[in-house]
Protein backbone atom coordinates (compact mmCIF):
# COMPACT_ATOMS: atom_id res chain seq x y z
CA UNK A 1 0.00 0.00 0.00
CA UNK A 2 1.12 3.56 -0.68
CA UNK A 3 -0.09 6.81 0.83
CA UNK A 4 0.22 10.48 -0.07
CA UNK A 5 0.50 13.25 2.51
CA UNK A 6 0.04 16.82 1.30
CA UNK A 7 1.76 19.04 3.88
CA UNK A 8 0.57 22.66 3.94
CA UNK A 9 0.84 25.68 6.21
CA UNK A 10 -2.81 26.36 7.03
CA UNK A 11 -3.92 29.29 9.18
CA UNK A 12 -5.72 29.99 12.44
CA UNK A 13 -6.82 33.37 11.06
CA UNK A 14 -7.78 32.71 7.44
CA UNK A 15 -10.40 29.96 7.12
CA UNK A 16 -9.79 29.78 3.37
CA UNK A 17 -6.08 29.03 3.64
CA UNK A 18 -6.61 25.26 3.68
CA UNK A 19 -9.20 25.20 0.92
CA UNK A 20 -6.74 24.59 -1.98
CA UNK A 21 -5.09 21.77 -0.03
CA UNK A 22 -8.38 19.93 0.41
CA UNK A 23 -9.38 20.57 -3.21
CA UNK A 24 -6.12 19.19 -4.62
CA UNK A 25 -6.25 16.23 -2.24
CA UNK A 26 -9.74 15.41 -3.51
CA UNK A 27 -8.55 15.61 -7.11
CA UNK A 28 -5.67 13.22 -6.39
CA UNK A 29 -7.94 10.96 -4.33
CA UNK A 30 -10.36 10.68 -7.25
CA UNK A 31 -7.62 9.27 -9.48
CA UNK A 32 -7.25 6.24 -7.20
CA UNK A 33 -3.46 6.44 -7.53
CA UNK A 34 -2.95 6.12 -3.76
CA UNK A 35 -4.53 3.83 -1.22
CA UNK A 36 -4.64 6.75 1.22
CA UNK A 37 -4.50 10.53 0.77
CA UNK A 38 -4.14 12.78 3.79
CA UNK A 39 -3.96 16.53 4.34
CA UNK A 40 -1.68 17.79 7.14
CA UNK A 41 -0.99 21.30 8.41
CA UNK A 42 1.29 23.39 10.60
CA UNK A 43 -1.40 25.81 11.79
CA UNK A 44 -4.49 23.60 11.61
CA UNK A 45 -5.64 20.08 12.32
CA UNK A 46 -4.74 17.44 11.32
CA UNK A 47 -1.20 18.36 12.31
CA UNK A 48 2.09 17.28 10.72
CA UNK A 49 3.04 15.59 13.99
CA UNK A 50 0.14 13.14 13.97
CA UNK A 51 -0.43 12.32 10.33
CA UNK A 52 2.03 9.45 9.79
CA UNK A 53 0.58 7.34 12.60
CA UNK A 54 -2.91 7.60 11.07
CA UNK A 55 -1.78 5.78 7.93
CA UNK A 56 -1.93 2.04 7.28
CA UNK A 57 0.38 2.18 4.26
CA UNK A 58 4.03 1.23 4.62
CA UNK A 59 5.14 3.52 1.78
CA UNK A 60 4.38 7.21 2.37
CA UNK A 61 5.04 10.08 -0.05
CA UNK A 62 5.09 13.51 1.61
CA UNK A 63 4.70 16.48 -0.73
CA UNK A 64 5.00 19.97 0.81
CA UNK A 65 2.44 22.38 -0.63
CA UNK A 66 4.89 25.26 -0.28
CA UNK A 67 6.38 27.57 -2.89
CA UNK A 68 10.05 27.63 -1.93
CA UNK A 69 12.71 25.65 -0.14
CA UNK A 70 13.44 27.09 3.27
CA UNK A 71 12.54 27.04 6.94
CA UNK A 72 9.30 25.07 6.68
CA UNK A 73 10.38 22.52 4.10
CA UNK A 74 13.90 22.03 5.47
CA UNK A 75 13.26 22.26 9.22
CA UNK A 76 9.66 22.34 10.43
CA UNK A 77 8.06 19.57 8.39
CA UNK A 78 10.92 17.02 8.78
CA UNK A 79 11.09 17.73 12.51
CA UNK A 80 7.35 17.35 13.05
CA UNK A 81 7.26 14.15 10.98
CA UNK A 82 10.11 12.83 13.14
CA UNK A 83 12.43 12.24 10.21
CA UNK A 84 15.45 11.80 12.46
CA UNK A 85 17.91 11.09 9.63
CA UNK A 86 16.85 14.11 7.61
CA UNK A 87 19.43 16.61 6.41
CA UNK A 88 18.76 19.32 3.76
CA UNK A 89 21.89 18.15 1.94
CA UNK A 90 19.97 15.02 0.97
CA UNK A 91 18.14 17.19 -1.58
CA UNK A 92 21.46 18.37 -3.04
CA UNK A 93 19.73 21.60 -4.03
CA UNK A 94 20.85 25.15 -4.77
CA UNK A 95 17.41 26.50 -3.94
CA UNK A 96 15.23 25.35 -6.83
CA UNK A 97 16.16 21.74 -7.58
CA UNK A 98 15.15 19.74 -4.49
CA UNK A 99 14.04 16.24 -5.41
CA UNK A 100 13.35 13.71 -2.62
CA UNK A 101 14.91 11.79 0.25
CA UNK A 102 13.89 8.36 1.53
CA UNK A 103 13.93 7.89 5.31
CA UNK A 104 12.24 5.87 8.05
CA UNK A 105 9.73 7.11 10.63
CA UNK A 106 6.98 5.48 12.69
CA UNK A 107 8.01 2.12 11.21
CA UNK A 108 7.24 3.32 7.68
CA UNK A 109 9.28 4.28 4.65
CA UNK A 110 8.89 8.02 4.08
CA UNK A 111 9.72 9.56 0.71
CA UNK A 112 10.08 13.25 1.56
CA UNK A 113 9.73 15.37 -1.57
CA UNK A 114 10.75 18.89 -2.47
CA UNK A 115 8.08 21.62 -2.44
CA UNK A 116 5.61 21.92 -5.30
CA UNK A 117 6.69 25.51 -5.98
CA UNK A 118 10.08 24.60 -7.40
CA UNK A 119 8.99 21.68 -9.59
CA UNK A 120 9.20 22.26 -13.34
CA UNK A 121 5.51 21.39 -13.70
CA UNK A 122 4.66 24.55 -11.75
CA UNK A 123 5.60 26.56 -14.84
CA UNK A 124 2.61 25.10 -16.67
CA UNK A 125 0.32 25.94 -13.74
CA UNK A 126 1.37 29.60 -13.89
CA UNK A 127 0.60 29.68 -17.61
CA UNK A 128 -2.75 27.91 -17.04
CA UNK A 129 -3.53 30.58 -14.42
CA UNK A 130 -2.93 33.26 -17.04
CA UNK A 131 -5.25 31.42 -19.43
CA UNK A 132 -7.92 31.10 -16.75
CA UNK A 133 -8.05 34.76 -15.76
CA UNK A 134 -8.15 35.99 -19.36
CA UNK A 135 -10.50 33.24 -20.61
CA UNK A 136 -8.03 32.81 -23.46
CA UNK A 137 -6.29 29.42 -23.94
CA UNK A 138 -3.87 31.08 -26.38
CA UNK A 139 -3.03 34.13 -24.28
CA UNK A 140 0.48 35.43 -24.86
CA UNK A 141 0.87 37.48 -28.03
CA UNK A 142 0.87 41.18 -27.23
CA UNK A 143 0.63 40.38 -23.50
CA UNK A 144 3.07 40.75 -20.61
CA UNK A 145 3.23 38.35 -17.67
CA UNK A 146 4.30 39.22 -14.13
CA UNK A 147 5.09 36.34 -11.78
CA UNK A 148 4.86 37.78 -8.27
CA UNK A 149 6.42 36.41 -5.10
CA UNK A 150 6.78 37.55 -1.54
CA UNK A 151 10.52 37.97 -1.51
CA UNK A 152 12.44 38.38 1.72
CA UNK A 153 16.01 39.02 2.79
CA UNK A 154 15.62 36.25 5.37
CA UNK A 155 15.33 33.53 2.71
CA UNK A 156 16.99 34.02 -0.67
CA UNK A 157 15.23 30.93 -1.97
CA UNK A 158 11.91 32.80 -1.79
CA UNK A 159 12.96 34.87 -4.80
CA UNK A 160 14.72 32.02 -6.58
CA UNK A 161 11.51 30.08 -7.19
CA UNK A 162 9.81 33.12 -8.75
CA UNK A 163 12.79 33.96 -10.95
CA UNK A 164 13.17 30.32 -11.97
CA UNK A 165 9.66 30.04 -13.38
CA UNK A 166 9.75 33.52 -14.91
CA UNK A 167 12.92 32.50 -16.78
CA UNK A 168 11.35 29.25 -17.99
CA UNK A 169 8.25 31.03 -19.29
CA UNK A 170 10.36 33.77 -20.89
CA UNK A 171 12.42 31.17 -22.73
CA UNK A 172 9.28 29.69 -24.27
CA UNK A 173 8.67 32.96 -26.11
CA UNK A 174 4.91 32.80 -25.62
CA UNK A 175 4.45 36.15 -23.87
CA UNK A 176 5.90 39.40 -25.21
CA UNK A 177 7.37 40.23 -21.80
CA UNK A 178 7.89 38.23 -18.60
CA UNK A 179 9.07 39.72 -15.31
CA UNK A 180 9.60 38.43 -11.77
CA UNK A 181 8.28 40.96 -9.24
CA UNK A 182 8.11 40.95 -5.45
CA UNK A 183 6.28 42.40 -2.47
CA UNK A 184 9.25 42.93 -0.16
CA UNK A 185 12.23 43.39 -2.44
CA UNK A 186 13.15 44.94 -5.78
CA UNK A 187 11.72 44.92 -8.39
CA UNK A 188 8.48 45.62 -6.54
CA UNK A 189 5.00 44.76 -7.73
CA UNK A 190 3.86 48.24 -6.62
CA UNK A 191 5.52 49.57 -9.78
CA UNK A 192 4.22 46.84 -12.10
CA UNK A 193 3.41 49.20 -14.98
CA UNK A 194 6.99 50.52 -15.00
CA UNK A 195 8.30 47.15 -16.15
CA UNK A 196 6.00 46.53 -19.12
CA UNK A 197 5.41 48.12 -22.49
CA UNK A 198 2.54 45.76 -23.27
CA UNK A 199 -0.92 47.26 -22.88
CA UNK A 200 -2.19 44.02 -21.32
CA UNK A 201 -0.36 42.54 -18.33
CA UNK A 202 -1.36 39.34 -16.54
CA UNK A 203 -0.26 39.22 -12.89
CA UNK A 204 0.04 35.78 -11.29
CA UNK A 205 1.03 35.63 -7.59
CA UNK A 206 3.18 32.59 -6.78
CA UNK A 207 1.33 31.88 -3.52
CA UNK A 208 -0.37 28.66 -2.42
CA UNK A 209 -3.61 30.21 -1.15
CA UNK A 210 -5.45 33.49 -1.34
CA UNK A 211 -5.03 35.54 1.83
CA UNK A 212 -4.30 39.08 2.88
CA UNK A 213 -1.21 39.31 0.65
CA UNK A 214 -3.01 38.29 -2.55
CA UNK A 215 -6.45 39.72 -1.73
CA UNK A 216 -5.50 42.89 0.13
CA UNK A 217 -1.87 43.99 -0.19
CA UNK A 218 -1.10 43.26 -3.84
CA UNK A 219 -4.34 44.65 -5.36
CA UNK A 220 -3.96 47.88 -3.39
CA UNK A 221 -0.22 48.12 -4.04
CA UNK A 222 -0.75 47.79 -7.80
CA UNK A 223 -3.50 50.41 -7.78
CA UNK A 224 -6.31 48.05 -8.78
CA UNK A 225 -8.39 49.48 -5.96
CA UNK A 226 -8.00 51.98 -3.14
CA UNK A 227 -9.80 49.66 -0.74
CA UNK A 228 -9.68 45.88 -1.24
CA UNK A 229 -13.05 45.58 0.50
CA UNK A 230 -14.63 47.29 -2.50
CA UNK A 231 -13.12 44.76 -4.89
CA UNK A 232 -11.60 45.50 -8.31
CA UNK A 233 -12.30 44.94 -11.96
CA UNK A 234 -10.62 42.28 -14.09
CA UNK A 235 -9.06 43.68 -16.13
CA UNK A 236 -8.45 46.92 -14.26
CA UNK A 237 -7.09 50.07 -15.89
CA UNK A 238 -3.84 51.22 -14.27
CA UNK A 239 -1.69 53.92 -15.87
CA UNK A 240 -2.80 53.09 -19.41
CA UNK A 241 -2.35 49.35 -18.92
CA UNK A 242 -4.97 46.64 -18.49
CA UNK A 243 -4.02 44.53 -15.49
CA UNK A 244 -5.44 41.00 -15.42
CA UNK A 245 -4.99 39.97 -11.80
CA UNK A 246 -5.22 36.21 -11.35
CA UNK A 247 -5.02 35.62 -7.61
CA UNK A 248 -2.94 32.86 -6.00
CA UNK A 249 -1.55 30.24 -8.38
CA UNK A 250 -2.13 27.55 -5.75
CA UNK A 251 -5.88 27.76 -6.27
CA UNK A 252 -5.52 26.59 -9.88
CA UNK A 253 -6.90 23.05 -10.27
CA UNK A 254 -3.84 21.93 -12.26
CA UNK A 255 -1.78 22.14 -9.03
CA UNK A 256 -2.89 18.55 -8.39
CA UNK A 257 -0.67 17.52 -11.29
CA UNK A 258 2.40 19.06 -9.65
CA UNK A 259 1.69 17.11 -6.46
CA UNK A 260 1.48 13.89 -8.46
CA UNK A 261 4.66 14.75 -10.37
CA UNK A 262 6.55 15.19 -7.10
CA UNK A 263 5.37 11.83 -5.81
CA UNK A 264 6.06 10.10 -9.13
CA UNK A 265 9.61 11.47 -9.20
CA UNK A 266 10.15 9.88 -5.78
CA UNK A 267 8.99 6.48 -7.07
CA UNK A 268 5.23 6.44 -6.46
CA UNK A 269 3.29 4.11 -8.74
CA UNK A 270 0.60 6.42 -10.11
CA UNK A 271 0.04 4.83 -13.56
CA UNK A 272 -1.82 7.37 -15.75
CA UNK A 273 -3.09 9.61 -12.94
CA UNK A 274 -1.20 12.67 -14.22
CA UNK A 275 -2.80 12.44 -17.67
CA UNK A 276 -6.22 12.06 -16.08
CA UNK A 277 -5.71 15.16 -13.95
CA UNK A 278 -4.56 17.15 -16.98
CA UNK A 279 -7.65 16.13 -18.92
CA UNK A 280 -9.99 16.78 -16.00
CA UNK A 281 -8.59 20.23 -15.22
CA UNK A 282 -8.59 21.18 -18.92
CA UNK A 283 -12.27 20.21 -19.10
CA UNK A 284 -12.94 22.29 -15.99
CA UNK A 285 -11.20 25.27 -17.61
CA UNK A 286 -13.25 24.82 -20.79
CA UNK A 287 -16.47 24.64 -18.78
CA UNK A 288 -15.55 27.81 -16.88
CA UNK A 289 -14.78 29.52 -20.19
CA UNK A 290 -18.15 28.50 -21.66
CA UNK A 291 -19.88 29.73 -18.52
CA UNK A 292 -18.12 33.08 -18.72
CA UNK A 293 -19.13 33.52 -22.36
CA UNK A 294 -22.72 32.60 -21.55
CA UNK A 295 -22.86 35.17 -18.75
CA UNK A 296 -21.49 37.78 -21.14
CA UNK A 297 -24.15 36.87 -23.69
CA UNK A 298 -21.68 35.73 -26.36
From TrEMBL:
* Keyword list, A-Z: Cobalamin biosynthesis, Cobalt, Coiled coil, Lyase, Metal-binding
Q: What is this protein called?
A: CbiX/SirB N-terminal domain-containing protein
Please give the coiled-coil regions recorded for this protein.
263-290
Which GO biological process categories is it annotated with? cobalamin biosynthetic process
Metal-binding keyword on record: yes
Q: GO molecular function, one example?
A: metal ion binding
Stored InterPro entries: CbiX-like (IPR002762), Sirohydro_Cobaltochel/CbiX (IPR050963)
Q: What is the lineage of its organism?
A: Archaea, Methanobacteriati, Methanobacteriota, Stenosarchaea group, Halobacteria
Origin species, per record, is Saliphagus infecundisoli
Amino acid sequence: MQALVIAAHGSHLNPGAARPTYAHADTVRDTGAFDEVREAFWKEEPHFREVIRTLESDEVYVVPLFISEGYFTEQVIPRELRLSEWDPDRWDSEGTDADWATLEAEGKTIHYCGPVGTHDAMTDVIVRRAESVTDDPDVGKGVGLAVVGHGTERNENSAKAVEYHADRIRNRGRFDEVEALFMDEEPEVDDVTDYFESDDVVVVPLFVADGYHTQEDIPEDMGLTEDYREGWEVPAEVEEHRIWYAGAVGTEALMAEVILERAADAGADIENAIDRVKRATAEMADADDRGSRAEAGD
